[in-house]
Write a structure and sequence with these properties.
Layout lengths: L8 E3 L2 E3 L5 E5 L6 E6 L2 H21 L2 H17 L1 H12 L3 H21 L6 E3 L5 E9 L2 E5 L5 H14 L3 E5 L6 H13 L6 E3 L4 H9 L3 E7 L2 H13 L4 E4 L5 E4 L5 H13 L11 E5 H17 L18 H16 L3 E4 L16 E4 L6 H4 L6 E7 L2 H8 L7 E5 L3 H10 L4 E4 L18 E2 L6 H5 L1 E9 L16
Parallel strand pairs: 7-8, 7-10, 8-9, 10-11, 12-13, 12-17, 13-16, 15-16, 17-18
Antiparallel strand pairs: 1-2, 3-4, 5-6, 6-20, 11-19, 14-15
The protein binds nicotinamide-adenine-dinucleotide.
Nicotinamide-adenine-dinucleotide binds next to helix 7 and helix 8.
């Protein structure tokens, strides 16, 4: 097979081929083989940890401002190679090229943003009741192991690498075994920008490689972005060895529409909320809760809009919805649609492969009405272009429906009444909530979930707290201070 991409691990500044399990990447838009490679495996996981020890030390030897300058340069290189990165991402992940361009631009912004933070991570002085100067420094954790999913490979890589490096850590990233290409490209760009060899390593492979990285005593923290089941396994593995973890997991976000909102805007946003990225997004607004008096108007408008969305090949500039990522996802989601209908949900739109696309894992934008708690389609993350619609009669019912289930990642409320919009937004159990909008995300603002959606926060200043730990340093300032045998008796 012609190998169009270099799919090897990037360890200590060099490409190293794996000798583990073989993986073959399939183009989701036409089911053709793209490339194959061998997984890094346990031996390269150990090698990566050793490289990260050395690379991390070299990284921390630089001044914080020098580290910031290198991250700033990395942002510039990502902008320089933006089109190459976006094309590769679109090819491997099967995502529309317009989405990939937007995501690569965001990755560049992430490095620029955290470049600014690198020399602004400050400690504090605590006014303790003794003669000490008590200085609290925030120090890096050492080597961060990051595992990322297939649905937004370069976006999630940049999202976690940038703050981890800015805080002075070394990083070993393991992208999804199905989408490793752009993460390896990013590691090579980091080296070109001046990140010392070993400070950022990317290992290609799947569960075996990921588990070996987390299980290593040199792992300072396990950062996992992916499914609930795997996330819990990774957190258990980290926890059993006494290592901290951060989990960014799935979602089943509720988009709540009250009759008094601007319905045209709400309908437009509801389409993007679920159908963008073919619904393969953790923040997808996959549950639409609509006040009963406008339910039929909203559903009909969405049905009409769904028929006009452009489903097509990822490389076409006009494509709004690309294929699902794999045959497995196509089968899984088709099964969920069938079971939803058997359970009493009404198929309003889609439900099958759209006409005109004979190969690839394409699924037409799908709308299912009459979804209820207890139905799989209402409770479980689908991760596809499938919207479950549920009517409600009053505000308390809307809040109860929105908060049903185990996911607490995101949500939205649409209302023309400011007091109600704010009241409901505050009552929703979710890490991010939008009022009269959906999915606006910025690297400047914290993002993350609770319960089934994970724990810890990414983005903004908050993630720097995840990637550093406080160290309390007690400096005696009185040469004649009494030396206590046990604890000091503190003068309050
Ligand atoms: P996944 O759980 O199958 O895999 C995620 C990563 O974990 C991959 O790199 C995989 O190789 C690795 N992995 C698998 N088993 C492992 C093990 N035993 N030890 C260590 N690593 C292991 O998830 P996926 O199917 O790639 O991604 C889809 C999921 O990701 C969805 O549920 C989606 O909601 C979630 N997601 C969440 C966010 C967020 O920020 N909350 C963002 C994007 C995606």
């Amino acid at each position: 097979m012609n190998q169009p991409y270099r799919i090897e691990s990037f360890i200590g500044g060099d490409y190293i081929a794996g000798a583990g399990e073989a993986f073959t990447l399939i183009d989701p838009s036409n089911e053709a083989e793209i490339a194959s490679y061998r997984e890094a495996g346990e031996a390269l996981a150990r090698q990566a940890h050793e490289a990260a020890q050395k690379g991390g030390a070299a990284w921390r030897k630089l001044s914080a401002s020098a580290r910031g300058a290198i991250l700033f340069e990395l942002g510039r290189l990502v902008r320089r190679d933006a089109e190459i990165l976006a094309q590769a991402e679109s090819h491997i992940a099967g995502k529309p090229i317009r989405d990939c361009r937007a995501e690569v631009a965001k990755v560049a912004d992430m490095f620029t943003y955290y470049a600014g933070w690198a020399d602004k991570i400050e400690g504090r002085v605590v006014p303790v009741p003794t003669s000490h100067l008590n200085v609290v420094e925030r120090e890096p954790l050492g080597t961060i192991v990051q595992m990322t999913p297939w649905n937004a490979p370069i976006f999630t890589a940049g999202w976690q690498i940038a703050p981890a490096l800015a805080a002075g850590n070394a990083v070993i990233l393991k992208p999804s075994e199905w989408t490793p290409v752009t993460s390896v490209m990013l590691a090579a760009l980091a080296r070109e920008a001046g990140v010392p060899a070993g400070a950022l390593n990317v290992l290609v492979g799947g569960a075996r490689t990921g588990a070996a990285l987390v299980d290593n005593p040199l792992c300072g923290k396990a950062v996992f972005i992916g499914s609930v089941a795997t996330g819990r396994k990774v957190a258990a593995l980290a926890g059993s060895a006494g290592r901290p973890a951060l989990l960014e997991l799935g979602g089943k976000s509720a988009n709540v529409i009250f009759a008094d909102c601007d319905l045209a805007r709400a309908v437009k946003a509801a389409q993007g909320a679920i159908f963008a990225a073919a619904g393969q997004s953790c923040t997808a607004g996959s549950r639409l809760l609509v006040e009963r008096s406008v339910h039929d108007i909203v559903v009909n408008a969405l049905k009409d809009a769904a028929s006009r969305l452009r489903v097509g090949l990822p490389r076409d500039d006009a494509t709004e919805i690309g294929p699902l990522h794999s045959a497995r996802q196509f089968e899984r989601i088709s099964g969920m649609i069938g079971r939803a209908r058997e359970a009493g949900a009404a198929l309003v739109a889609g439900g099958a492969r759209p006409g005109g696309l004979s190969s690839g894992y394409f699924l037409a934008p799908t709308i299912l009405a009459d979804a209820k708690p207890g139905m799989e389609i209402f409770d479980e993350e689908i991760f596809g272009p499938v919207l479950a619609v549920t009517p409600f009669d009053h505000e308390d019912e809307a809040i109860a429906l929105a908060n049903a289930g185990e996911f607490d990642l995101a949500g939205a409320v649409w209302s023309g009444q400011g007091t109600r919009a704010i009241r409901v937004a505050r009552a929703l159990r979710a890490g991010s909530v939008w009022i009269n909008g959906y999915r606006t995300l910025s690297v400047q603002s914290p993002f993350g979930g609770m319960r089934g959606s994970g724990f810890g926060r990414s983005s903004g200043h908050d993630v720097l707290l995840e990637y550093t730990q406080p160290k309390s340093i007690w400096i005696e300032t009185d040469d004649h201070a009494p030396i206590a045998f046990g604890y000091d008796v503190l003068k309050q």
